[in-house]
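Two folds, back to back.
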Amino acid sequence: MTRPIITEQQILDALHPIVDPDFRKSIVDLGFVKNIAINGSDVSFSIELTTPACPVKEEFQNDAHARVSALAGVENVAVNMTAQERPAPGSVETAREDVLPGVHRVIAVASGKGGVGKSTTAINLALALQKAGARVGVMDCDVYGPSLPLLTGTHGRPQTEGKKIIPLEGHGLKLMSIGFFTDDDSPVIWRGPMVHGLIKQFLTDVLWGELDYLILDMPPGTGDAALTLTQNAPLSGAVIVTTANDLSLIDARKGLAMFQKVEIPVLGIIENLSFFTPPDLPDRKYYIFGEGGGKRVAENLGVDFLGEIPIDPQVVSDGDLGKPIVLSQPDSIAAQSFIELASQVTRKLSKVEAAAKSA
């Protein structure tokens, strides 16, 4: 009996019904399917996604494997999941190769004011991206109140290689903070030019290596340090952290306006400390600081609302021990909220990059 001849077009036709939920187009039409190889009854191909942290990566892989396996004559299928190594040519990430070379995407996590859980959001977002398969670093940009050493339980003075600084590592993340260079009880009393110089040094003199994402834990507010970062870091996008109360929302608007003024894409607003669910009443949500404030601001300002992070005492207690909730309690509501946040951020960033590429 003659074995059916398998063609590349048959494979593409089989994969065509798989649609990217963000771009709403077939992965074939988007050019994601690459390196098709046919050897008798054995078929292999790659699906190149826009980010290694793509939230539908496993779904795509399983669906593609099943569809091609169903073709007559196919016995073995190998689906290799890859990701684009660099953003679109001409985008902001490739505009300044002397700043953060090897870092593919830079995401600022910002807030208009302190005390809204920005640093906790930044570190858990970084870990959620890492869990999805990305190489991630975190730069603590708050010179006056560095929190990265505490939140990660990482301590020690970074080594140097020539004139470059080697970041420390904690929980598989590459880390940099002024807190690694100072004693816990030593206040940092610096004027603006010194802060400006340190931030520029962290951007140009740290050997980050190859990273898919560098998360910038921005200083609170819209002062000199924040402006220095927006003007010197090749930012791919920004996430604004707020709580639902009116004062935080007013400041969140200011932070959003700062990024828009310097033409940095705002990926969306995240509402932290959004609600409390008692352990003995898992179906209840108590909105202590008000309900829906973050979503209303996002709608009013025309940006995406990325979701709610609940109040969970474990986030604070585990964070103080250097064990972020995404690692310490991965199945908790709070951890799952951060994981969903990472999914929303990567999907929004993919859209921003696609728009830049087609512009």
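---
second:
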Amino acid sequence: MTVNECPFADIEAAATALAADLATTLRTAIDARGSAVLAVSGGRTPAHVFQRLRDEPLDWGRVTVTLIDERWVPPTHADSNEKLVRDHLLQGLAAKATFIPLYGGEASPMAGQPACEARLAKLAQIDAAYLGMGPDGHFASLFPGDAALDVRDGCCVAVPETPQRVARMSLTAPLICAARHLCLLYAGDDKHEVYQQARQPGDYHELPLRLLFDHAQGPVEVLRVA
């Protein structure tokens, strides 16, 4: 596993570089296998990336997009990652891409997991996964100490509600780590300190990001905004 670290002065520069990197990976996959799979994160930063990626000259009709994780809310909800992707990525040229949602309308992610698993099982290996990280070292919806960190079977795992967060659905760690190309984008000194800790040996239950670096099967591009 190779880790390439790239510092950037601002989010615009990082987003431009990441969009170009993701486009190159998707283009390579289409040339090699006739199709490509992209998994993306939600949050505040991805909109910058999506608005650049959607204008990349790709054969978007051969691209399938899904989510790294999703809050269990309808796609009309302001906190929905699906809404973020539809509003900022699946526009213009990229509107031709196929989108596979995690949220299915069921009462809970536990109830919705079988159907979500069936949707994701139709996908091939993820070609490009775009990840963020939390200040506690979580990625996707794999949080410190949660049982979801240890799920090794299947494509998705239901993450129950807690007093601190709404219920969610997440891709499993093995599915994410098996991506042909992984990209991690984060900003700020506090997250950089967490990142540096995650690069050191230790328990991934304390810092889930360690799981990514321990088990990633492809190269990991780390883009840091100082």
